[in-house]
Amino acid sequence: MKAVKFANGLKNVITASHDDALLEAAAKALGHLAKASPMPTNDFVDFELNRGLEWLCAGPQYGHRRLAACLVLKELASCKPTLFFRIIGDFFERIWPVLRDARQSIRDAAADAMAAALQVLAERPSPHHLEFLFRTYDQVSCLPSLVSLIFTVRYHNAISSAQAHLSPILPQVKISFGGNCEGVHASLRVAAAMVAHCPDFMAPRFDYLCETVLSVAERPGRGGLAASLVRATVTRTLPVLAAFAPDAFARRYLRPTLSVLTRDAQPGEVATRRAQALLALGHVCRSMGDQLLPHMEDLVKLVCVCAFE
Questions:
Q1: What is the Cα–Cα distance from 58 to 254, expressed in whole angstroms?
Q2: Which residue, 15, 118, 153, 258, is most buried by CB atoms nearer than 10 A?
């Protein structure tokens, strides 16, 4: 009886609250209750799953509903994966508008829910699940803002190379990214989740993914789309790729990765960015092993500078 009252209380909190921290705590409690409670939970969990799916369709003006839906669905996917599996098709259909929400907290919650859903699929391998993976990958790799960013970077790199040889003739070209970074941020988060939970599916796509992430990292300038959020997401994604296929990563992508991370770890950068870059460097070093020996002198110098400045 007490468990029923507690569950009803959590439902009321999730329905009425607009506080992000409270919603997160209520969702975690709901997941724990669904997993550990001795009471029959199917009806209670089904209600929350269906409400979550309904709230995923809420408009951007109902951000608290989108956030609550993502937090609850993520916890139920982790704590009641069998019941979550029943609605996984609807989940993959409805999550994408939420992943492009203007609020970072909602996008992060949606990416966490997507990661939990991918884990549910990974635990139930079946050829039928490839449809979900292909659709998810298509959404990530064909996202207009990400594709536009990649071509903008490549265009800028080509122009920069030409200017190096023709500087007396060509005017200097400066490109800054316009638009918003929501799509790029969401794509990077979901791509990292696919690498973590769908390794067999992502192995043939590893090179494209590494090239894409490094293209984002090598963007020109520091404004517009080259915002701190995207830079931080790239920094967190690179160690994931290094750990996924260390030998392949070391052969083609280690040098540009070290260039990106050591650049962000230099004195003069924002303290938070430096800390993120140094932590990412540590994770990359753990994955690379002996492949890192040619770069050790420069890395040790950087660590000493950061430690004793």
A1: 42
A2: 118
Kindly state the tokens that stand for 84: 């979550």
Interatomic CA distance for residues 162 and 181, integer angstroms: 28
**Does residue 44 sit in helix, strand or coil?**
helix
Q: Where are the beta strands (DSSP E) in 8-53?
A: none
Tokens representing 71?
Answer: 């937090």
Question: Are the beta carbons of 261 and 284 closer than 8 angstroms?
Answer: yes
pLDDT tens-place string over residues 83-124: 999 999 999 999 999 998 888 899 999 999 999 999 999 998
- The tokens of 19 are what? 């506080």
Count Cα atoms within 13 angstroms, Cβ side, for 254: 24
269 phi/psi in degrees, rounded to 5: -75, 165
Residues 201, 204: Cα–Cα separation, whole Å? 7
